[in-house]
Amino acid sequence: MKTVQVSLGDRSYEILIESGLLSQVGELLEHRGIHPTIFLISNSRVFELYGEDLLRQLSDRGCQVNEIIIPDGEQHKNLKTVEQIYTDLLSHRADRSSTVIALGGGVTGDIAGFAAATLLRGIPYIQIPTTLLAQVDSSVGGKTGVNHPLGKNMIGAFHQPDLVCIDTDTLSTLPAREFQSGLYEVVKYGLICDPEFFEFFETHLEDIRNQVADILGEVIRRCCEIKAEITSQDEKEKDLRRILNFGHTFGHALEAATQYQEFTHGEAIAWGMLVETHLSRLQGFLDGATSKRIIQTVRSIGSLPPIDSVSIESLMEAMKRDKKHQGDRIIFVLLKDIGTTVITGDIKGELLTEAWEQTTR
Amino acid sequence: MKTVQVSLGDRSYEILIESGLLSQVGELLEHRGIHPTIFLISNSRVFELYGEDLLRQLSDRGCQVNEIIIPDGEQHKNLKTVEQIYTDLLSHRADRSSTVIALGGGVTGDIAGFAAATLLRGIPYIQIPTTLLAQVDSSVGGKTGVNHPLGKNMIGAFHQPDLVCIDTDTLSTLPAREFQSGLYEVVKYGLICDPEFFEFFETHLEDIRNQVADILGEVIRRCCEIKAEITSQDEKEKDLRRILNFGHTFGHALEAATQYQEFTHGEAIAWGMLVETHLSRLQGFLDGATSKRIIQTVRSIGSLPPIDSVSIESLMEAMKRDKKHQGDRIIFVLLKDIGTTVITGDIKGELLTEAWEQTTR
Predict the structure, then answer these.
(1) How close B34 comes to chain A (CA, Å)?
(2) Taking 90 as the threshold, does the pLDDT of residue B34 lie above it?
(3) I want to staple A4 with a disulfide (CB 3.0 to 4.6 A). Which of A37, A176, A224, B293 is the partner?
(4) Does residue B326 register a pLDDT over 70?
């Protein structure tokens, strides 16, 4: 089993990664001192695949397990769903020794994590992410939250899980589009801080896309390790953690401007990385050859839904509303090289338009 | 000006206490590096008394101040009010450099603090408590939250303010019943950890009740100091902080069993301290003379609404639902002496009934 340690003082925890790990979760929790009352939060699709087996493993070990099925999809990532979870938790007498298990993708993890963060001012939770995006990104680092009609992830809290269990086998049931979407966050880790990992990704892309177990496991491990290192050093996103937002200033705006209907998060980030790579070159941070190499690799992951129908004006508007802005300045994470970032709030609107045009051209 | 330091690493902050402090808030914030965007959250009654002057002080110093008026009263301390605040904050483009100022009593502070804790995963906030209860208790320590239909303060987060400004003059406009209610939390501090302060309270009760400025200021300062010491050592209520719950196991149950309609929080805690003092004696922790002295002092603060109509059964039921229980055990903070507590989860139901009967007799 691969293990990544997230070092955060008394909030430290482990990320366990293995093919077939889901069948060992009961045993693992027993070994770690099982909590008597468990709330398994999942959506119906994921619960159907893995829920019953997990319930059985836990109740066989004397746990009282309550399942809470929440609706699937970003449109349900809101306070209404959280309130439903609060009511379920409290009516089954959750207390501070109860544990929430979030079984599913990023939406499930974010919602369940926020409910756990804010019930009784914080109860323990365990993440079992079942999508690539959740495994390499949202399940690690303690960001939890939901959307508000005025913006994505506007409501939230930092709340570290007690444990993250990643079963790479769950990816085999993932729709191809979702798997591909996760790969964009994977390549991002190489771009922001690890040139060797970027090269590994470039040269092993076929095996990764075909989910060759060893290669995929190693890729996920390295992503978790990078995210763990970054969040260990900067839990609350005051500084270093912001580099994780490469591609996200523009990507979030693209999602918002299309009402989260046209692109998956990963696809929006892919477009964001393309524009922000152009921007890095136009701003004079990145040379032409490196920029070309990055764009080629991002594009070779797969085809992306077109962005022709989106206007740069609507994106500018959305960026100003995003929570990464500071006063009137829009903050960008740009690249100086593969593996080296620069954070800037001084990008001129014209340059952004130029980068956008070069990307869509 | 009296200053109490709350030491919590990079979340440390000061509590400033002075008669007339409200008229200096603008200057104080300017001196400390004023934030450009401020959201003043208050209820209409308190805003009418102090709001306009505060707005003027801040806008005179170049701040953009938005006021958010929320409904008054415990029945509005819920997620609906928080959602209204989120919408106000986001529609006025609050960002991570914006500051929320909570001006009012405990309800306002808890709600505004929770909104600040969970907007964009936490933005800065300043507490300006205007009730005695808020000044000596809820504004210090970083507990924020709202009620759920299934229980009080069930939804919440720890979020430390950047500053607490206490103007003791605001107490002169406080209804007598609310002032008296705050005094119960004051005497609690002596009981749980400071025999000298308890004695000071006993001997100066008349001056305190008459709001003699020097005495009252010193009393508030000492309460803040005690709470600051305790929360500095145990921010997340894992251990030491639990002693603050003396009188609260029973007190919270009394509030819940009467649907928060019959007692103020302080009055419920007063009854709770009386029952739990009896309980401490019956359990053999406290001698008879000390128990008598405590009961006499609590009673001499003023008359309490009767509890004859409440049944011990309804209280037991409410205690089991409270967030302080652990599994099936109800946790009590009891007294071994004035200033010395003992935490126990091993109180028999019969003893509780006996303590209840001795209190109501």
Answers:
(1) 14
(2) no
(3) A224
(4) no
Residue entry with tokens 């019956």: B282
3.40.50.1110, 1.10.10.10, 3.40.630.30, 1.20.1090.10: which CATH number matches B176-360?
Answer: 1.20.1090.10
C-alpha A337/C-alpha A344 separation (Å) is 15
Q: By three-state DSSP, how is residue A199 classified?
A: helix
DSSP structure class, residue B136: I
Smallest Cα distance from A1 to chain B, Å: 33
Three-state DSSP state, A287: coil
User: Chain A closest CA to B111's CA: distance in Å?
Assistant: 13
User: Alpha helix locations (H) across A152-212?
Assistant: 176-193, 195-203, 205-209
- Smallest Cβ–Cβ distance between B119 and the set A122, A154, A321 belongs to A154
How big is the A-B interface in CB pairs under 8 Å? Answer: 93
- Whether B121 is a known active-site residue: answer yes
Q: Are the C-beta atoms of residues B122 and B92 closer than 8 Å to each other?
A: no
Chain A residues within an 8 Å CB radius of B149: 87
HSE (side-chain half, CA atoms, 13 Å) at B79: 21
Summary mean pLDDT of chain B: 94
Length of chain B: 361
Q: Where in chain B is the domain with CATH 1.20.1090.10?
A: 176-360
Per-residue pLDDT at A326: 65
Contacts of A119 in chain B (CB under 8 A): 154-155
Per the CB < 8 A criterion, the answer to whether A116 and A122 are in contact is yes
**A2-173 adopts what CATH topology?**
Rossmann fold (3.40.50)
Q: Which residue numbers of A are catalytic?
A: 121, 143, 185, 227, 237, 241, 245, 248, 252, 265
CATH 3.40.50.1970 boundaries in chain B? 2-173
Which chain B residues have a beta carbon less than 8 Å from that of A37?
Answer: 327
Instruction: Measure the CA–CA gap between B111 and B342, rounded to whole angstroms.
Output: 31
Which is it for strands B13-18 and B163-167: parallel, antiparallel or unpaired?
Answer: parallel
CB contact under 8 A, B122 and A323: no
**pLDDT tens, B60-115?**
999 999 999 999 988 899 999 999 999 999 999 999 889 999 999 999 999 999 99
How high is the mean pLDDT in each 10-residue block of chain A (361 residues)? Answer: 91 94 95 89 97 96 96 93 97 93 97 98 97 95 93 93 96 95 98 98 97 95 95 81 94 91 94 98 97 98 94 91 71 96 92 94 84
Task: Report the 10 Å Cβ neighbour count for A82.
Answer: 23
